[in-house]
Amino acid sequence: MPDVIRPGNGHTDVPDVTAPESSRAGVPDVIHLDGVSRVFLTEPPVHALSMISLRVGQGDYMAIVGPSGSGKSTLLNTLGLLDRPTSGSYLLDGIETTTLRDGARTRLRGRKIGFVYQSFHLLPHRTVAENVMLAEVYGRSGRSGRRRAEDGPAGVRAGAAFGRRGRRRRAEEALEKVGMTHRVGFLPGRLSGGERQRVAIARALMGGPSLLLCDEPTGNLDSRNTEAVLDLFDGLRDQGLTLLVITHEDAVSSRAGRRVRISDGVLTEE
Ligand SMILES: Nc1ncnc2c1ncn2[C@@H]1O[C@H](COP(=O)(O)OP(=O)(O)OP(=O)(O)O)[C@@H](O)[C@H]1O
């Protein structure tokens, strides 16, 4: 839990790293960090993130590199609303997240963010389709759960699509995006590593997130499957998805349009 939350806390003199193309054109940033720090109050305290300012626009594809222990996961957890900064401001699609209560953060995460990890985290006794569908049952409760006042009339209409059939259809659409519709009934154990990661990406795409956060997504893949996943990322970026990818592989970071380095919690753009 954070000790102090001071959104917009006077750190406006912190230079922004760079403004993304899209924000210059008047489109809101997907990510806008302003003076974000994260201190773990251990003995001694760890300054995992120090005064990070960063703007990422829609359709940006950014690699995050840096040595072990430099703060990459802490940054990804912060961006993914899994952790709160100790201080600073984080606007996600224009929404100040640091002052939101836990429930609102969970719903926002469910609506806007997909996660992809090195180990695919697929349930072994569930089919490909079921694994993808379960994203809405567990990870996206804000979307599939009880309708909220702010959903408005569209939410009433959408409510009809929240049953199992709607989920199944959306899962098949997500699997189509990753080229895996021919394996919907397979159990994960019968898939190659590359195919498993594509299913995990389909699961992350459920709910139509605006941001995909990936932690070493090709870490368990050979070079051929790495290329396939990177091609997929290119396609998703072309469709307007924003991608942030932690990686230590040059083959991955060289494909991203932007590259930032974290060193002892300090971020610089390369
Ligand atoms: N819950 C925690 N409590 C205390 N310190 C932590 C905690 N989580 C991370 N840290 C520390 O914060 C720093 C940054 O950790 P982080 O996991 O973000 O690094 P990383 O760059 O992702 O490392 P790696 O590449 O090895 O995964 C490290 O010094 C780590 O020991």
Distance between the first and last residues' Cα: 32 Å
Percentage of residues assigned to helices = 25-40%
Strand content: 15-25%
CATH topology name of one domain, in short, is Rossmann fold
CATH homologous superfamily heading of one domain: P-loop containing nucleotide triphosphate hydrolases
Quick one: overall form?
Answer: globular
Structural class by sheet pairing and helices = alpha/beta
Taking the sheet with the most strands, its summary is:
6 strands, mixed
Q: Specify the CATH architecture of one domain.
A: 3-Layer(aba) Sandwich
Number of helices: 10
Which radius of gyration do the C-alpha atoms yield?
19 Å
What ligand molecules are bound, each kind once? Answer: adenosine-5'-triphosphate
- Count of beta strands: 10
Strand order of the biggest β-sheet:
6-7-8-3-9-10
> What is the name of the CATH class of one domain?
Alpha Beta
What is the averaged pLDDT score? 84
